[in-house]
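Input record (one chain):
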Amino acid sequence: MRARAEESLQELEALAEAAGARVSERVLQERPARDPAFFIGRGKAEELRLRAETENLDLFIFDEELTPGQQRNLENKIGCKILDRTQLILDIFARRARTREGQLQVELAQLSYLLPRLSGKGTMLSRLGGGIGTRGPGETKLEMDRRRIRSRIARMKVELEQVRTSRKLQRARRQSIPVPIVALVGYTNAGKSTLFNSLTQAGTEESSRLFATLDPLLRRVKLPNRLEIVLSDTVGFVRKLPHDIVAAFRATLEEVREADLLLHLIDISNPSWREQAAAVEDVLGQLDVTKTPTIAVYNKIDLAPMALAEQALPLPGHRSVRVSARTGAGLPDLIQEIMEELESFAMEAELIIPYANAGVLARLHEVGRVLRESYEDDGVRVVAVMPRSAARSLRRYLV
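The corresponding structure, as predicted from the sequence alone:
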């Protein structure tokens, strides 16, 4: 239990550094129960107050979510800014969101978090002071009341619903010409963007920073068996991911819910990969996608000790493959696994059907969707979308 808590604190330090903080120290307190007023107890709060004065500290970050009362009491007692894990994650999201959709989702999550905390001094609502935890959701007055926030939340939900509707229309257009969606999911910093670039040559940002990717990326990829897929890179997950964030990012995560195949990236070089994989599976459960076919992709084998890599067993009910997205090792095996998993999916193919075999053309209209036809000297040239089984039976006509 203590080891898990220390790992969580280490991750909190990485989150703080991702937000621009310089971490002075990590402290783990053992106590039988949380103090209802101060979370850590009055004695420890007094100790932190003295340290803040003597060491000129201006921020304390807690690894658990604080109640509004606990946060207010700690700020009054210690005399400096207090953040919890949820606020820190929201701050990082606010810094990283680039698209209008991403910014809306972050602001919605921030406002949902701040709403029950308006009775405090208001330090967390201000954007005037600068620094971590002050990247507020767009308002500059400290006197924001509940009515204004609820009104803003309602407007934002309408805007995000419009985004969701737009995505549905885009998916409907894609589905009219069946193209399977393959979504990359995984713990933050598992290497999803690196794998995305390796498979698509998209040149998107690769970074060891936590939550480097917030806005969804979609690219078409043609596999060696001629099947075309849409590859989707999504926001990384993390332990203790607040429910408000999952709810706010529903529009982005719709790509995960609509996916035909999930690639669950797992950083096998991280000693805590099992806990990280379990955290991702938990979020996937919240999204109700546990029945979607999944390939467990054990990434960073070039960085993992051999003994650790050998422990990588398939997740229950999933295929698995070991790769290094950075060096390319194992990628052919991954592509083969993807092709096998999508074997039953439709594909686009070009055929030339001799005029003497007009019955084949009629059959093609029955089992597939003809996109284009042209009449040439040696037969009818057809581009059609059809089940892979039908394509195999017509392979003699494939161009």
